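Incident log entry.

Two folding requests arrived from the same account within the same minute. Monitoring flagged them as a possible duplicate submission, but the sequences differ. Recording both here for audit purposes.

Request one:
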Amino acid sequence: MLTGTLLAWLAYVIGALGLVIVTWRITRSLRREWSHLLIVSVAVLLLTPAGMAVEETTFLAPALFVLVLDGLFETLGNASRAGLLLLGTWLLALVLSLVYQLVVHPRLQRRQ
């Protein structure tokens, strides 16, 4: 049986993937490099989880939400950790995206 937290994460991930698909559809007219950069950025911003402390229990929540909500209403400790996690994940995803574009994309141009 699905618990409430798992069901909420499932609904959130389905919605986030829907937004990534919408981003892909919107950026189709851009150059491949820019489109790839925007899609990776949206995916990382929406899908990176972070720990959120609630009454001596830690739950996973989207890092963007933890950053904004803990920054506004709670201490800045959780918000800064979520922000650093989000920044590190985003930079890692951009580096991996760049490596992918440099390795795979030139091969595709040679074949055509």
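Request two (distinct sequence, not a duplicate):
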Amino acid sequence: MEFHDPIDLPLQGRTVTRCPVDFAFSLQFWEMGESTINICIEGPFTLKHHAREWALDAEEDNEGLGKALTLFRKTVAQATAHQDGGLELRFTDGTELSVPPLDKYEAWQFGGAGWLIVSTPGGGLAIWGPTEAEKQ
């Protein structure tokens, strides 16, 4: 993965296979023969589908998260992490999910395929990549 702004996350063509909910909302991507990738959203996020838009937050409004569960089985068209700590996912049906950075907490994290990318408090990204042994 190259580090530039924006950072294209390796999710294009992958399908959401699980949507766990606790004090966060997560999207998991599992495919036979591939490592599981997880996005954990720990703060407010926006979900858009056609002309409708919902402001959601797993910690503050668990009733509203039903709308986010519609992401189950959707396929990613593009996934982008921004240097300011924001995250955007676009799905093939036109649905969009966006997560802004947070001042005091980690807004989201991406983990899988040897990568860990964290939206740091106050904005920005912390990025850890696979070791040379994991790349082989």
